[in-house]
Amino acid sequence: MAPIIEITNLVKTYPGVRAVDGVNLTIEQGICFGLLGPNGAGKTTLIEIVEGIQKPDSGGILYKNHPVGDRFRKEAGIQFQVTSLQEFLTVRETLRLFRDLYPRTLDIDEVIHLCNLGEFLDRDTRKLSGGQRQRLLMALALINDPELLFLDEPTTGLDPQARRNFWDLISMIRSKGKTIILTTHYMDEAYALCDVIAIMDKGRIIAQGTPEQLLKDHFNDVVLQFPDESVKGKLEGLDLCVSAQPGRCEICTNDVDKTIRLLLDHGVSLSRMTVSSWSLEDLFIALTGKDLRT
């Protein structure tokens, strides 16, 4: 099966800024693909070029082995981060309006059920909550039964319950064989939903793979954490990688059994020890730095 998207040597330059700098990327069909990066990394520009909103300076994009064209526009759905809806229309009327823009659509009742819109179909779209509005925007992106779905930071600003409900919706869509391209600043969201992620910075893809593989490639240890009082005066002279944090001590190790035996031999109590593995957020910071981006 051909990849659904192939990007080759893509370049986009603005005055003084190379926003997309020779990106090569392949996205397989039927997966949830996450694109991560700090503000200004170039990911929005890259996605807008793929969507056909912007034109690249050079490079190419194929959709199912063919240049992006009418077939792509018919088979793609997009949920933008910010979307203006026609005012003074209800949810039901908005769905009908968007349905009539496409030659092929899902049944509206199916979309209503899928996105759980039934309780507010006759409500003015201006009076929707944040979570309700995002579910409507998802429904509009799905109305043409797309093969490829773009979701641009779809859960930004949602409360925890609404976010988790939206995750369930994305997973359900993914289970129907759709390909999803997700941009998000939430590392837990990317880890929970994405089969493959790419991290972008300064216009380039700097890492790509499954979340588990990327963590394995960049981190081969875990962190043991102890309150200061548990280890005070007991670690001197030990060959351990120790760092002091406010109120606690952290020990990095790639051999937990050996380290714990060593600590027990030197009288360290394990009753308040916690073990932490590295997260996708740790990887993101390690690769892109801690400097604030604007």
CATH architecture of the largest domain: 3-Layer(aba) Sandwich
Q: So what's the oligomer here?
A: single chain
Low-confidence stretches: none
The total count of strands amounts to 14
SSE class: alpha/beta
Main beta sheet, described? Answer: 6 strands, mixed
Rg on CA atoms, Å: 23 Å
Q: In order across it, which strands form the biggest sheet?
A: 6-7-8-3-9-10
Distance between the termini: 40 Å
Tally of helical runs: 11
- Morphology call: globular
Q: What number is the mean pLDDT?
A: 92
Tell me the helix content.
25-40%
Give me the CATH fold name of the largest domain.
Rossmann fold
The name of the CATH superfamily of the largest domain reads: P-loop containing nucleotide triphosphate hydrolases
What does this structure look like?
Helix content is 33%, strand content 27%. Strand 9 (196-201) and strand 10 form a beta hairpin. The longest helix has 16 residues, at 160-175. The protein has helices spanning 43-51, 70-75, 91-99, 108-114, 130-142, 160-175, 187-193, 211-218, 228-231, 256-265, 280-288, and strands at residues 5-14, 17-27, 32-36, 58-63, 66-67, 76-79, 148-152, 179-183, 196-201, 204-209, 222-227, 241-245, 248-253, 274-276. It is globular, with a radius of gyration of 23 Å. The chain contains eleven helices and 14 strands. It has 294 residues and is α/β, with parallel strands linked by helices. The protein has two domains: 5-216, Rossmann fold; 220-277, Alpha-Beta Plaits (2-Layer Sandwich). The strands form three sheets. The chain has a six-stranded mixed β-sheet with strand order 6-7-8-3-9-10, sandwiched between helices. Strands 2-1-4-5 form a four-stranded antiparallel β-sheet, covered by helices on one side. The chain has a four-stranded antiparallel β-sheet with strand order 12-13-11-14.
